[in-house]
Amino acid sequence: MIGHGFIIIGLTALTQIGGIAWGLALLLRMMFGRLLIIFAVLYVFLSVIAHYTAPLVGRVALPCLDAGPSQIAVLNPLYCALNRHYVSPQMKEHADALSAHMHDKFPGTRTRALDASFPFIDGFALLPHLSHDSGNQLDLAFYYVGQDGEYRLGQAKSLIGYWGFEQPRPGDPQPCAEDTGVSLRWNMGWLQDYTRDWPLDEARTAEALGWLAANPKGTNYKIFVEPHLSARLGVSGEAVRFQGCSAARHDDHLHLEFAP
Predict the structure, then answer these.
(1) CA nearest to 138, candidates 74, 182, 208, 220
(2) Does residue 216 register a pLDDT over 80?
(3) pTM above 0.90, yes or no
(4) Residue in 30, 13, 12, 14 with CA at minimum distance from that of residue 22
(5) H helix runs in 84-237, sequence order
(6) Which of 133, 132, 93, 89 is nearest to 114 (CA)?
(7) What are phi and psi of 75, to 5 degrees?
């Protein structure tokens, strides 16, 4: 039973409702057997229930598949499978507005989301993040071009959008260069050879960051991005901030967060 306890804890940390599905599957396997099949059925059932009940507690699901240029959608359906694609209605409206703006500026552009929040319970951590616990936080994928210079529609360097870092250039600001403290600021050096060798689409990424920094909808929020990248893109503003040296790097994605 200790092993099942660890599984429940792990599934709960990863998906929020997976631990409940595993616990129920353990109870039902005495009648039906086939633990994994029961778990899979229960997990899908609870995920569907979450989709329709999350709005009752102030969260809505982002689209799992392409929803057109005027709506944001997750980069990879895996985020939906893990129930990590829930945001507040305000965040959904704001992200859709960004998506529509990017399509207006660069027709055909698709804006993609990464981690958001779980469907229920404010304060429930979305590991490994230090936040993403209220529906008011959303990670946004960068935009990329291929080696041929053509925009890569709705894709990123890695399949999940994270860890394809834009490395600082000589002379760029690097506030954490001498930092040796304990942090989540991993470099994932071993993974870099397995990400796509695609340059950052600086025009699109700068436009998105600039639109957010200009705060056209008058909302109180902050955007986390590495200083060397905001400097390269020529975007600054009160909302554009550095997350500090103890948190994960933000030169592989943008973090948008509404103030409480």
Answers:
(1) 74
(2) no
(3) yes
(4) 12
(5) 89-105, 202-214, 227-233
(6) 132
(7) -65, -40
